[in-house]
Design goal:
This protein is an alpha/beta fold and 416 residues long. It folds into 2 domains: 144 residues, Aspartate Aminotransferase, domain 1, CATH 3.90.1150; 257 residues, Aspartate Aminotransferase, domain 2 (3-Layer(aba) Sandwich). 40% of the residues lie in helices and 17% in strands. It is built from 14 helices and 17 strands. The strands form 5 sheets. A 7-stranded mixed beta sheet has the order 4-10-9-8-7-5-6, with helices on both faces. Helix 3 crosses helix 10 and helix 4 runs parallel beside helix 5. The protein binds pyridoxal-5'-phosphate. Pyridoxal-5'-phosphate binds next to helix 4.
C-alpha cells in the first residue's frame, strides 16, 4: 500500500487536532469513533479555514469585482489546485471538478459521457463489489442507452477475479468502472491489471476512489484513470464537497452535466457556449466554503504524510483482524491479510443482527456502522443481510480497538 514502509504518525498530536474526539457519549464513556469509512471527523485547520471564509470573505465566487468576491474566488480556485496536486493531477484545476460527493462525480461521468457515447452494442463492466453509486448509476445508463451491464466476479477472498476480467473485458467493452478500495470487503483492487485490460479494449477507465484517497497515496496519472471520483467528507474535509478528476481531453470534449449560471461563456436566447475547465462542469453558485475546507484538509493530510497514514491504517487493520479472530462465531469478510486491505473490517457475529451490535457497542462509546453499506447485491452474494463495519483513521489507536472488543464481548454475552 505504501512506498515508505517506515513513515509513522504522531497519533496524540493528530488526536489533539480533532475536537470531536474530546467528547463523551455518556458520563465516563469517551467517544471511540470507528465509522470513518462513512465520514471522518473534522480537524481544526479545516474548521478554521471554513470559519475564516464565513467570518471575513463570505462572498459569491467569480461574480464580483469587489474585494470579498475576489478573495473568495482565489481561495476557491486555489483549493482546486491543491486537491489536484494531492492526487497527482499535473493539469491542476483544469482536471479537477468540485462536485457534491463521489456519487455526483460518478453521475457526472455516467450522464455527460455515458448517455452521449453508449449504445446497444456497448458493454459497461463493473465489479460485484461496487457501491450503489457506481452500480445504480451505470444500471440507469444501461437502461437508457440499451448498453449491457456486466459484473466482474470476485475471488473467495473478495479480490476482483482477474481471469474473469480478462474474459469479459473485450472489444465490446466501452467502459470499465471499478472501486479502488472496497467499502465492504476492504480489498485494494489491482487497478494496474484492470486498467491495462480497459485500455487494450479502448474502453473508458473510471475509478471510484472514495475509500482510497483518504487513506493512501493516490496518483491518478500513475493509475492512468480517465476519471477518478472521491468525497471530501471521508478525508477530514467537510460534507457537501466531492471531486472528479478527468483527463483534460475528455473534459474538453464532453458536454456539461448541469446547465445554468457560472458554467457558461456566452448566452443568447437561442444558444450558449461553455466556460473554461473546470467551471464548465460547476453550474450555479458552488460550495465555496466546503471547497476551501477541502483545500485545508488535503494540506493537513499532506502535512501528516499519506505514507504514514497508510502505514497506520494497515497496522490498525492487522491488529483488528488479530483481535476479532478471538471472538467465537465472528466471521470477517474480505482478505485475511491487512496489506491487501484498506483500513476497514466488516464482520458478522453468529446470528446477532448487525443493528443490535451497533446499538450495544454505542453504549460503550463505540461508533461503528451496521447495514449493507450501500452494497446490497454484494451482501446477497455473501449470503448475509447486513454486516457490522469498523473503519479506522489517522487518529485511531489500538486501545480503541480493545474497547471495540470489550463491547463486542458484552454484546455476545447479552445474546448468549
Ligand atoms: C466506495 C464508495 N463509493 C462511493 C461512495 C459514495 O460516497 P458519497 O456518499 O460521499 O457520494 C462511498 C460512500 O460510502 C463509498 O464507500
Amino acid at each position: 500500500m505504501s512506498a515508505h514502509p517506515s513513515a509513522s504518525v504522531d497519533v496524540e498530536a493528530i488526536r489533539a487536532a480533532f475536537p470531536a474526539l474530546e467528547r463523551d457519549i455518556a458520563p465516563d464513556t469517551p467517544l471511540v469513533y470507528l465509522d470513518n469509512a462513512a465520514t471522518t471527523l473534522t480537524p481544526e485547520p479545516v474548521l478554521d479555514a471554513m470559519d475564516e471564509y464565513y467570518r471575513s470573505y463570505n462572498a459569491n465566487v467569480h461574480r464580483g469585482l469587489h474585494t470579498l468576491s475576489q478573495e473568495a474566488s482565489v481561495a476557491y480556485e486555489d483549493a482546486h489546485d491543491d486537491v489536484a496536486s494531492f492526487i497527482g493531477a499535473s493539469g491542476g484545476r483544469e482536471e479537477l471538478i468540485f462536485t457534491k460527493n463521489t456519487t455526483e462525480s460518478l453521475n457526472l461521468v455516467a450522464q455527460a459521457w455515458g448517455l452521449a457515447e453508449l449504445g446497444p452494442e456497448d458493454e459497461i463492466v463493473i465489479s460485484a463489489a461496487e457501491h450503489h453509486s457506481n452500480l445504480v448509476t451505470w444500471q440507469q445508463v444501461a437502461a437508457r442507452t440499451g448498453a449491457t451491464l456486466r459484473i466482474l466476479d470476485l475471488t473467495p477472498e473478495g479480490h476482483i477475479d482477474l481471469a474473469h476480467a480478462a474474459e469479459i473485458i473485450g472489444p465490446n467493452t466501452a467502459v470499465v468502472s471499478v472501486l479502488h478500495v472496497s467499502n465492504t470487503l476492504g480489498t485494494i483492487n489491482p487497478l494496474d491489471a484492470i486498467g491495462d485490460l480497459a485500455r487494450a479494449s479502448d474502453a473508458l477507465f473510471v475509478v471510484d476512489g472514495a475509500q482510497a484517497v483518504p487513506i493512501m497515496p493516490v496518483d491518478v496519472e500513475a493509475i492512468d484513470a480517465d476519471f477518478y471520483a472521491f468525497s471530501g467528507h471521508k478525508m477530514a474535509g467537510p460534507t457537501g464537497i466531492g471531486c472528479l478528476y478527468g483527463k483534460r481531453a475528455l473534459l474538453e470534449d464532453m458536454e456539461p452535466f448541469l446547465f445554468g449560471g457560472e458554467m457558461i461563456r456566452t448566452v443568447s436566447y437561442e444558444t450558449a457556449s461553455w466556460n473554461d475547465l473546470p467551471w464548465k462542469y460547476e453550474a450555479g453558485t458552488p460550495p465555496s466554503a466546503e471547497g476551501i475546507g477541502l483545500g485545508a484538509a488535503v494540506e493537513y493530510l499532506a502535512s501528516i504524510g499519506m505514507d504514514a497514514i497508510a502505514n497506520h491504517e494497515r497496522e490498525l487493520t492487522a491488529y483488528a483482524l488479530e483481535r476479532l479472530a478471538e471472538i467465537d462465531g465472528l466471521v470477517v469478510y474480505g482478505p485475511d491479510r491487512a496489506d491487501e486491505r484498506g483500513g476497514l473490517v466488516s464482520f458478522t457475529m453468529a446470528d446477532i443482527h448487525a443493528h443490535d451490535i451497533a446499538e450495544i457497542t454505542n453504549d460503550y462509546g463505540v461508533a461503528i456502522r451496521a447495514g449493507h453499506h450501500c452494497t446490497q447485491p454484494l451482501h446477497d452474494r455473501l449470503g448475509v443481510a447486513a454486516t457490522t463495519r469498523a473503519s479506522f483513521y489517522a487518529y485511531n489507536t489500538r486501545q480503541e480497538i480493545d474497547v471495540l472488543l470489550e463491547a463486542l464481548r458484552a454484546t455476545q454475552q447479552l445474546f448468549a
